[in-house]
Amino acid sequence: MMTASPPFLRRWLHQWLSRRIPAGPRQRLSHRSIFILPSGFGLMWLLLTLLLFLFGTNYQNNLVIGLSLLLASVFVSAILHSYRNLAGLCIHALPPTEVYAGDTVAIPLKVSADSQLYQVQLGYPAGQMMTASQISSQPQIIALPVTTSKRGWLTPGRLLIESRFPLGLCRVWSWVDLDNRILVYPALRQSPLQLQGHSDDGVHSLHHQPGIDEFSGLKSWHPGESLKQVAWKQYAQGRGMLSKEFADPQGQPVWLQLAPALNAIQLEQALQQLCWQVDILARQQRSWGLKLAHQVITPSAGEPHRRNCLAALALYQPTAEPKDE
Amino acid sequence: MNSSDHLSRRTLFWLLLTNIAVLLPLYDKITVATLGICAICFIWRLGIYLGKVSRPPRLLVTLLALSAAITLALVSREMGLLNALINLLILGYALKYIEARIRRDVLAIILAGYFLIALTFIDHQGMGNVLLLLPVTAINTLTLVSLYRDDCSAATQSWLTVKLLLQSLPLTLLLFIVMPRFAPLWMVPQMKSASTGLTDEVGFGDISRLTRSSDLAFRATFDGPVPPPQALYWRALVLEDFDGKHWRQAPTTKALQHKVNLLKPNRTPPKGNSRSYRVIAEGSGQQWLFAIGNAFSDTQGVFNLPDYRLYAGRPLQQKFQYRVQQYVNAPLHEEPLSNAERERNLALPSSVNPRTRALAQQFVTAYPQPEPRLDAMMRYFNQQPFFYTLTPPVTGPQQLDDFLFETRAGFCAHYASAFTFMARASGVPARLVTGYQGGEFNADAGYLSVYQYMAHAWSEVWLADRGWVRFDPTAMIAPQRIEQGFDSLFAPQDSYLAGTAFSGIRSSAWYNQLRLRLASLDYYWTVWVLGFNGERQQQVLRGLLGEITTTRIAFLVLGVMTLIFIIIGYSAGLIALPTRQPQLDRDFRRISRLAARKGIVRATGCGPKDYVQQLIQHWPEQQKPLTEWRELYLQLKYAKLSPVTQRITAKRFHRLTAQLWLQLLRTAPRAAAESTPATLSATNR
Fold first, then answer.
1. Nearest CA to B458 among B479, B436, B440?
2. Which pLDDT band holds residue B584 (cuts at 50, 70, 90)?
3. In chain A, what are the domain boundaries?
4. What would the 3-class secondary structure string for B433-467 be?
5. What is the pLDDT of residues B255-307, one digit of tens each?
6. Which of A158, B22, B314, B412 is the one with CA 20 to 30 A from B185?
7. B168, A64: Cβ pair inside 8 Å?
8. pTM here?
9. Which residue, among B104, B107, B191, would best test binding to A if mutated, counting the most A CBs under 10 Å from its CB?
């Protein structure tokens, strides 16, 4: 529906929708956000009703007229039942799993409802519709597949929630914006490890780079750092949370570096290869640093560091102004 | 096309059931060929359901459909257009059914199913049939429901269907009452059905066929008191031509009837006293209607023929209702008899029944005046040993001679025939009239039922100053038959119920009672459902609204619809009545609200224990009751108390709340004077 209309209409619809159903991570469907129109079958049903009425009139047959009126009344009841089948539906976006470009990401949604809802279909414009056969007050998690094509932030768009229960006469639907976006990492491209030493060769040769191989001292611990590195002995002595600093001997190649001056395709390939290498290093629990054109991530290890690097690769913009030296 | 398009096994099962349920009531309209194809489709579908065969190739289905349609088109003339159309629809239904694969196919089948149900109503309008077709409609709907709820038990699906239909019934009723009724918008093909009841030709064997039928012919409701049985001579046909064996309608009458819609014959109603009644004629396939004496009808579609009969504009395919004014004192005599009419009503085939003619001549010589002569003829039937029987002996070629002088046994057609013949032979214009005589009164519902076995024949004789006068010679043989009705004269074995299982029990009182009850139920059904026309509608609306205006109807519709919506909304769980909080919570809220008004706001996430502590800090003088209040609250809320203790504690808590409330209301909280409520709530000293 949204995709079939001309662009200006789509734009207008988007604007109107964002005013009518504002974005938010938690949505509860009510009369403000539920739309209802007869489905194609519903229109056929109404046509049949009209046909039967004419038929009954021409044959002066009250029973046929009665049947047509019954069908019309069923249509009216179905409108109420259809509306009820979406009213009170609560949707809450959960953080998605990580995804590499080209893969399908499952966006998990937590859904629940005040009353029992049946045969509710949910789906993003870019993905497949999933059917929840029953939704009750007990929250359940539905993962909606969305295919990704390129790295960077992916906004899945407005979530379509649709139902035709109980008779398929009415299409009840809502477009809600859960205000969620997904960071898509570059696709993985197999490549050998290409670690390099420090770029400024020789000059800082006496210094150690932070790493995990050699103990170099203690520093105060910050939340987020690995608990493995906490100096528990010192903590027990009441000196507070300190973390052990390790360092890799200088000169050992720890840097992943983006090759400069590339065209767009080569750049993407390089990013994809870096992505692969980051994952390999993380799996080997080694320490590494990442150097991009305008961004340097100092060598470290662990899951947060890996995610940091992948995010940097995902969001890398070659034309962006350098932030720092 | 996503996964939900595939049909669940449950849906396929309901589809099998729906197919049978929809097609079965149409049994009398299905031709043998159609039935064969339907059976093949059903068996094939059953095979698919059981996993024995695969879906038929598309080409086969198309070929079958084409050949069947062509065959039907070829025979449509002899079977009637409507019947052919019905069969075509049934075929389409069966063939679509066999190749149903996805949801869309099933939707088409369901819509066609509703249409077939409507077609069943064309000539099955009895209450029993409707009671039968309601479940069929429900099953058809159930198949639809199963498409959208395939993950639950059959019982749940059925319940949902029944709920939906029941919720729709009130609105249906409302619409049925207020929906305007129109006259037929265009001509439609009618069912080709056998006509029943009287025929326009009477011979010696014809009426006896009717006297064996207990089918209803028509019902009549009188506005005033019901006339006595001997006055109930319902005229239907006037037969003027006699060929020695049969009485027939005159060609001019036939021509007029044939072009009745074109010529639109009418009369001006006479003046004088009138009695009005309403007749609901059963579908007979004929056009003649039934009325007593000098009758006039202003109902649309009814024509008033010059021989005082009423005639419908089209054959009665279903029950037909019309109003009649009967001018009690007016004779059947407005214009003098024309010469052509006189000749026609004196004409007799030559050399037929010479003995009867001779008898008529004897009457002429004995009674020169027509009226005494006719009376004498009537008495003749009474004085000679004539018998009334429904199984008269066979007569020879001179029928009337044989009857009058040899067998002397027969029924109304014999007597009326003989009397009319004698009247004509003696020079008095006379004609045979057929119709019904009498009626069974149903005191429950206040109407007369006239059955086919009440069919009767009598004579009308033209007397110059009195017009057409009725003479019923049958009354002379068996006067009881006319005075007390047909049933009292004959033992059931002799008449219409001979050979049926009911012969024995028919005489029992409870059976008669039950029969009358059912008959009145059927009468109400006919009047209020089948015969609910514009006139009835006005009557009902006037009863409901007083005066019919658009505004009032709009208010009625809106009002009832709102009510229905509220009921449906409530039962569907859309509208929830605010539930009353438990007394305990209300008491607690009462205190906290008062405290809040005085500036002590309960911090979010602050438990009841801490909250009461907070209150104590502001009202230290109330420490004792507040502590007790808190303990009681905690007990009631969290401890498991026996019912008795529970009640006592709750009462104490309630009373304590009231006291506390008063105390807190009277005294200002400490430290409330120097700081604002906002800071107070934040500082929790």
1. B436
2. confident
3. 7-185, 186-207+250-325, 215-248
4. EEEEECCEEECCCCEEEEEHHHEEEEEEEEECCCE
5. 888 888 888 888 888 888 889 999 999 888 888 999 998 889 988 889 998 88
6. B22
7. no
8. 0.72
9. B107
What is the CA angle A254-A274-A181, rounded to 5?
Answer: 120
Write the residue in A52, A77, A83 that is nearest to B118 by C-beta: A52
B24: Cβ contacts below 8 Å, ≥ 6 apart: none
**Cα(A146)–Cα(A154) distance, integer angstroms:** 10
Task: Give kind and range of the element (H or E) at residue B278.
Answer: strand B274-281
In DSSP terms, A256 is beta-bridged to A290
Count of A–B CB contacts within 8 Å? 137
Beta-carbon contacts of residue B253 (< 8 Å; ≥ 6 apart): B238, B240, B305, B307
Tell me if chain B has a CB within 8 Å of the CB of A155.
Answer: no
What is the share, in percent, of chain B residues with pLDDT greater than 70? Answer: 89
β partners of residue B102: B6
**pLDDT winner (highest mean) among A46-50, A82-86, B217-221:** A46-50
| Sequence-distant (≥ 6) Cβ neighbours of residue B87 within 8 angstroms | B29, B30, B31, B34, B72, B79
Nearest CA to B125 among A67, A283, A256? A67
Residue B402 catalytic? no
How far is C-alpha B336 from the geometric centre of its chain's CA atoms? 45
Beta pairing partners, B461: B430, B469
Enumerate residues 6+ apart whose C-beta is below 8 A from A24: A177, A178, A179
| Per-residue model confidence (pLDDT) at position B479 | 59
3-state secondary structure of A153: strand
Q: Which residue of B has its CA nearest to A57?
A: B184
**pLDDT value at residue B113:** 95
Instruction: Identify the weakest region by mean pLDDT among A9-18, B317-326, B419-428, B530-539.
Output: B530-539
Q: Mean pLDDT for chain B? A: 83
- Report the distance separating Cα B674 and Cα A162, nearest Å: 58
Q: Does A68 contact B at CB distance below 8 Å? A: yes
Taking the domains of chain B in order of start, what are their residue ranges? Answer: 3-151, 583-682
This model of the complex carries an ipTM of: 0.75
Q: Is A54 on the interface with B (CB under 8 A)?
A: yes
CA atoms of A17 and A160, how far apart (whole Å)? 12
What pLDDT digit, counting tens, does each position of B605-635 carry?
778 888 888 888 888 888 888 888 888 888 8
- Looking at the DSSP bridge assignments, the partners of residue B609 are none
Phi and psi at residue B237, in whole multiples of 5°? -135, 145
- Best residue of A54, A74, A117, A171 to probe chain B, by most B CBs closer than 10 Å: A74
What is the residue type of B608? P
